[in-house]
Amino acid sequence: MIKFILMVNKQGQTRLAQYYEFLSVRERVTLEGELIRKCLSRSESQCSFVEYRDYRVVYRRYASLYFIVGIDNDEDCNELAILEFIHTLASYSGRI
């Protein structure tokens, strides 16, 4: 199940943040800061799946935006389906 969706530019500024479970503002800021640094520091040759805290994170870069989706850390979550979701989301936002 999707827990959050982030759209971030290459400078690390959050352009969209949507959370589907309650997190305090302090927790959101901490989560976004650490996660954005982690995703932006990875090279393009590395896998787009990252485990972070209690989440499995799937991200993809389109043009100058990173689309980051956090999901449950369960075995039944399909990362490739989430990547397809990100592709669809990016196409609707006009990034591809």
TrEMBL record:
One Pfam family in the UniProt entry: Clat_adaptor_s
Domain of life: Eukaryota
Location in the cell: Endomembrane system
Cross-referenced Gene3D superfamilies: 3.30.450.60
Chief localization: membrane
Keywords of this entry: Membrane, Protein transport, Transport
Keyword Nuclease part of the UniProt annotation: no
InterPro entries with a match to the protein in the record: AP_complex_ssu, AP_mu_sigma_su, Clathrin_sm-chain_CS, Longin-like_dom_sf
Occurrences of domain AP complex mu/sigma subunit (ranges): 1-89
Family per record: Belongs to the adaptor complexes small subunit family.
Stated name of the protein: AP complex subunit sigma
The species this protein was found in: Durusdinium trenchii
